[in-house]
Description:
- There is one protein chain.
- By secondary structure, this protein is α+β, with helices and mostly antiparallel strands.
- The protein is 26% helix and 30% strand.
- The protein contains 5 helices and 18 strands.
- It has helices at 2-19, 102-112, 123-131, 137-158, 257-268, and strands at 22-25, 28-31, 34-42, 45-49, 56-62, 74-79, 85-89, 116-117, 120-121, 161-162, 167-169, 182-189, 198-203, 208-213, 217-219, 222-226, 229-232, 237-239.
- α4 crosses α5 (257-268).
- 25% of the residues are buried.
Amino acid sequence: MKKNILTLIITLISICSFAQKIKIDKGEIKLDEKTIGFVEGKKPVFTILSLDKTYAITAELKKAQNEESLVLPWIEIKDLATGKTNELEFKNKSRKFSAFNYDRSIVYELMDRNMIGTEGLNKEAIDSFVSGALAGIAAKRLGIQGEVDNANKIADTYQLAIDDYGTIFSVKAQNIDINDKRIGYIKMTSPSSNGDLKYEVLDLDNNLVGTWFARGGMVSGYEKLLNQEVITFNGNVFKATFENRGNPIGYKMSQDITAMNILRVLVGNGYTLGSKYNSGK
């Protein structure tokens, strides 16, 4: 009986917590119409103050350059009294997150982490967070972006092109005929076995170099589903985004931006295609 009552109490607390509604009204943070604090500033930096304005933190939105638009920024929390900082990511992507109301979304996120409550900023919880182990989000996200930027620089030097038959060309081709600029082929399978778009990249010897899946791709020996990712013949996986802007009217492989994204990722990461039988290989 006691166990059932405890379960009921926990359930009711969860329901009440979920039902709590945050509203930002002229800089006032209102929880179920009760003012619990204040917020100032605008994207990317917001200052959140306690109800008596004696304690404040900043919440700065950060994003690695050239990250996909759907990737949410991370938040750097700074205690203005101590100068200590730490980072967190948006974990709640349901009704509580809005790209049009980042200030409210941040408050909801802090509320989920007990850094804001019914009495406003929870100084003890915030101090514990900023004094704790560093999350390392910036180091990870910026490091990944650095790898992407480097791959893009390498791909630029190859001056890649694709014709409407899926033949891939590069100024760095190393064929016997110096005027032969072919380095491989790309073909699209639509739909693939699971009903989604798939591309295959082959070298000049028709060896499969990489396979790209739009969504839910499955490859033997790889445990995860592949979503807008290319997996190479030797098991490496790289992100390559889908883009349909290149073919507004009718389809031409030469205008397929997704195909070019796939090639640039492969070449930028060392998969230069070509033929092992040609000179210079």
